[in-house]
Amino acid sequence: MRKLILVLFLLLPGLAGAQSIGLSSIGAPALPPDFKAFPWVNPDAPKGGEVRLASIGSFDSFNPFIVRGTPAMAVGRVWDTLMRSNPDEPASSYGLLARDVRIAPDRMWVAFDLRPEARFHDNTPVTADDVVWTFQVLRDQGRPFYRAYYADVADVVAEGPGRVVFHFRSNQNRELPLILGEMPVLPKHWWQGRDFSKPLSEPPLGSGPYRVGHVDMGRTLTMERVPDYWAANLPVERGLNNFDRITTEYFRDATVAMEAFKAGQIDFREENISKTWATGYDFPAVQKGLVKREEIHHQLDTGMQGFAMNLRRPIFANRQVRQALAIAFDFEWMNKNLFYGAYTRTLSYFSNSQLGSSGLPQGDELALLEPYRAQLPPELFTTPYTLPVTDGSGSNREQLRQALGLLKQAGWDVKDRKLVDASGNQMKFTILLPDPSYERATLPYVQSLDKLGIAADVRTVDPSQYQHLVDDFDYDMTMITLPQGDVPGNEQRDYWSCDAAKSQGSSNVMGICSPAVDALVEKMIAATDWPQLLAATHALDRVLLWGWYVVPNWHIDSNRIAYWDKLARPQKTMRTGFDFDDWWIVPGGLAGDLAGDVAGHGAVLKAAP
Q: Which domain holds residue 457?
């Protein structure tokens, strides 16, 4: 049996709890106490140079921890965390700001001992008071998921300048020490006199490997490597953060960002559009070998991507309506004609992993579901969840007939080619998108809905406006991605709970509120071994699927990347595919400097205002 225990090593005599440099919530940390660097990095990677990245949208804040404002994506590099996660291990981390960590024998508290050499960029020490203040301000003023993450913390105490202790409400939350270890630590003294709840327009103070350099608000952000970074030689940092400067150019349009990459003004991109990957990289720099393309396979749970329905809108209150809208989606035609056969249909909220449900519930999973049988659809217990499979011809009449049958059962009927309710009102809704590239997959779905007499239209806004609308739950339907980790836990409260459904800015964008879902989430969090976690996750997945809250889309088990050959990376394959933090500039490389000539672009492409 695979126990979900927090494995502790380096036992020291006379301590209330065991002392450790690493934590894991699934098995034992893989690395020994004396490891010199993560095994997937090049510890001798050269430092220097500038890498240029692209982002779509804009930014108006350097505070990524609150709902208000649109934060610059790269600003997270400013702050160090207590522990640093190892992407090559599931749910494991090792000491960064924290020299070591101690867990109570009864698992009712965790203590972090800070490294005395840890410093903010103004050379002030990182103290336990900073940790306490950070926890409190994130819980009280941060985005809603922090309250969900930290709900089982009773209090936090600074026991001297170098030790902080978190006391728990119970010992049932197996991953809570790991979650607290991943908390960024902010400088209390710098934030005094500043309103944490408001967007931040000045560069923040941190202790991390980078600080904010050149800023053109909303257009360009350059992060500069801290030359005397206090943790540069720690095992968890060696071989990482190799660029002297990381410049992010913000573009309003993904097409312009692609042209900037082709012109050599952007050095790296991760491609998420199958058509572009298949047809958009036949330009001179690729032909001459100056731009490299790779598909790097990963071993990650790919979660759920789909068109999410906002249950706060009365039109989506009926489960049969939601099921009909899912049946009308013709994935096979899209995959064949739009995606070059690159994707797999998603049939689980925990796709590409053993955490996803299948078949019929039985054993421990069935026992978890039985108390809620009266609240759940009868089919959940008798019919394996599936989605219709078309022949890819574009003629999905049989599936549309099934959808129309469900809609009629829900009180809708077709009159004069319009789907109307008993009062004669046509079914209408808007699909909200953050990027024009999503329209390619959305418009064929709108055409299928039109065949049912449904008036669906598409509204595409810029990413900043999109984020505000979703945070405020001001949408009908939208395309979302709900990622999952190797060991689901506290984040599930923010995804599915009734409390999250009422909290502005939460991840429960669908507005799901179900006693069965709430109970199963708590079972997941409290699971003490792998079989218990599997049973709870399978049960939750099944309840969510049969709720028909999304129109499931697709997933892929690889990262598609393209980059100019001025960049290099370690060749060791890791569980997550790759980590851009371990890349470096090839010394003496000229490809980036010559890119404009090779690409044949005479004009300089600028980020849109």
A: 304-555
